[in-house]
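Per-residue structure
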Amino acid sequence: MAIKLKNGAEFLHIPKTGGRWVASLLDSNNLIAHNKGHKHADYDSNLFDYDSNLFPIGKGRKRNLLRLWSLLKTKGILKDTSHNISPFRFCFVRHPLSWYESWWKYMETIGWRDFGETNSASLWHPNSILNGLGSHDFNEFVWNVIKKRPGYVSELFMSYTKSGINFIGKTENLHHDMIDVMSILDIEIDKSKILDAPKFHESKKVQIEWDPKLKDMMLKLELPSLIHFGYINEKEQRDFGLHKFIPPNKALHLK
């Protein structure tokens, strides 16, 4: 979920990037003030400062309240002062190919159920576009995604890492990046509590074999994400035909 920390910082949870581990760690160390909106609220959604915990009402009425709140802001009746406040926001990403593998493993475990509905404000979910694309064959699933939404993971990640994001860590270095973001936020927490925290609901161990041609195609389609989040170096960028080095997102945490 989008999480508001007691010091005002906000964590944006991109699906399948270790967010449940982060949320569990924050909760166990009593650092959470409250949850904000949807569990996976992206950057734009998170700007709408609605605290669901302050309104203990049913889901249907809560959706209506959200619509009313948005309408009042649009009409200028309710003044939006969120632009005057710029909280520290952080999130985590992972290698796009690894994201596809993790999502497939997870969906194989839960039976490829749908998440949300596309073009629905009340049933929004960042991965609703993937509904109906499942397959027990990993490469077929990947091809299904390519046909419907080429470069999907880049699109997903970019919706959370717009201008204003302060810290982008990596799932591949989750524990150490979490230590660093806590240090940046000047939050005192025993490093051992972070380093020793077990992985949370890790996907089952399944050997995945990419079709080589499909993998090569996916790397090209996800090139924006590979560049933006520092998953390829200058030489590898040249191998993709880029004659000038493109630096990663300025918020990306680099050692």
Observations:
- The chain has one domain: 2-239.
